[in-house]
Amino acid sequence: MRGLALVLATLALASGWPTPAARAQALVADLTNHLIAITTGFTGTEVVLFGAIEGEGDVIVVVRGPETAIEVRRKERTLGVWLNRSDMTFADVPSFYAIASTRPIEQLARPEVLTRYRIGVDHLALEAADATDQVEQFRQALIRNKQRESLFPTAVGTVTFVGSRLFRTTVAFPANVPTGSYQVSVFLMRNGQVQGAQTTPLLVSQLGLSADIVDFAYRRALLYGLIAVFVAAMAGWLGSVAFRRV
User: Fold this and answer.
1) Could you tell me if 103 and 60 are in contact, meaning their C-beta atoms sit under 8 angstroms apart?
2) Domain count, the chain
3) CATH code of residue 65
4) Considering only 38-52, 121-135, 176-190, 208-222, which range has the smallest mean pLDDT?
5) Within this chain, do residues 224 and 135 fall inside the same structural domain, yes or no?
6) Domain around 232
7) Whether 189 and 221 share a structural domain
8) What confidence score (pLDDT) does residue 192 get?
9) Nearest to 176 by CA among 149, 157, 215
10) Given this model, what pLDDT does residue 125 score?
């Protein structure tokens, strides 16, 4: 029913006759798929977001993965060996964070507005458990690590208008995308302020054989470890036999 309402609202806005729901909200958006299924051969995927606005404005799309605590360690060279010398833990860090917009976000709102709605990596509320004068260094290290893993994409995606009111964008998810419940937030920007917002859920879940293996490893950790050791030993033995025959 929600998808049908979205289609009707989108068509109504496109034709110039907004529905009562659209007039009240001024922004409608949805995803082509609300489930990303991670199977054995998963190599990443893309999800299309589409929608419509009433009147003029810009659109920002923010995708946030489930939040978790992350410990950041800093290594220092001691007597020729790199050792972990200090660390800092950040709470409520998005496991995935991507953004797309019709224009650069700095042109759409002032920094305090972006910080209020946590729009953009530089405006995320990454709180350290033990705040020190080095918190900003560790914060930047955390962001670099996430970017290196492709979980905080450095490139800002493009939200494209089809006509004056309909818009769409494509969100790319890497092969190592974490599982869990995601939030896809869409903001309607006018005159530097948020004039409308909508959040749509997205689920990333393991299915099939990979999900069964993960579930077995979690519920039967000892047995899974023994099987893994046995399989590794057998693989090594078979490899040595093959090389002897060669």
Assistant:
1) no
2) 2
3) 2.60.40.1930
4) 208-222
5) no
6) 208-246
7) no
8) 95
9) 149
10) 87
User: What mean pLDDT is predicted for residues 88-105?
Assistant: 94
Shared-domain flag, residues 149 and 236: no
Answer yes or no: do 151 and 221 share one domain.
no
Do 122 and 18 fall within a single domain? yes
pLDDT band at 215 (very low <50, low <70, confident <90, very high): very low
Question: For the chain, what is the HEC assignment?
Answer: CHHHHHHHHHHHHHHCCCCHHHHHHCEEEEECCCEEEECCCCCCEEEEEEEEECCCCEEEEEEECCEEEEEEEEEEEECCEEEEEEEEEEEEEECCEEEEECCCHHHCCCHHHHHHCCCCHHHCCCEECCCCCCHHHHHHHHHHHHHHCCCCCCCCEECEEECCCEEEEEEEECCCCCCEEEEEEEEEEECCEEEEEEEEEEEEEECCHHHHHHHHHHHCHHHHHHHHHHHHHHHHHHHHHHHHHC
- 51-86 pLDDT, tens per residue? 999 889 999 999 999 999 998 887 666 655 555 567
Q: 201 with 90, same domain?
A: yes
pLDDT average, residue stretch 20-24: 46
What is the chain's Cα-based Rg?
23
35-61 in b/e form (b: 16+ CB < 10 A) is ebebeeebeebebebbbbbbeebbbbb
